[in-house]
Design goal:
Elements lengths: L1 E5 L4 H12 L3 E8 L5 H14 L4 E6 L3 H4 L29 H16 L3 E3 L15 H14 L7 E3 L7 H11 L21 H13 L10
Parallel strand pairs: 1-2, 1-4, 2-3, 4-5
Helix pairs in contact: 1-6, 6-7
Amino acid sequence: MMAICLLSGGMDSSTLAYLAKSEGYGIVALHLNYGQRTERKERDCAKKIAQLLDAQDFVEVDVSYFTKFGASSLTDRTIDVEDYDSARAHMPNTYVPFRNSNLLSIATSFAEAKQADAIYMGVQSLDYSGYPDCRPQFMKAFQKVIDLGTKDTTHISLKTPFIKMTKTDILKVGVKLGVPYEHTWSCYRNETKACGTCGSCHYRREAFAAIGVIDPIPYEV
């Protein structure tokens, strides 16, 4: 069996790739550069995780056209990345409009070309951002898109096993699988030392604290 794993280099996607390997899939890592601030660090982490998993291939695709659209602090450097705020009522400005549909479309093309059996994506919807393209309904709908938009002989399963899990739940899975979290990156702002205050840093640190494990990456604060 072969799985296309969307591997960003972050906690969730790295854990997902280890899970896919444990479930018997040969791993083909797909890394998508969408113009995010920390792309260099994320790419390095993704390559290392793919190497440690003995992935069959590591493929990079440039989708940095998102920087031309703007409207997200991840792809538009004129917009400051917000600090985590538990009282925030609006969607965080790190939301990249309709990003996941773009990434999944590319992954589907790749999966059909490689005759892969599955696409693994590490989205979660419980304790994080409220991004609309991380919702279970969206992933269920995209499975239908895959079924309708590929050849009748093509059968690709879209697997999102973390979608109803918290970051802490995902970390527990990863610790059992031996995921080397020192080779993962979550910070939205920095590539050398994680800022410690953006939403992604907040939830990562919260998860490590919840299970009593020291986070192996460096932080500014």
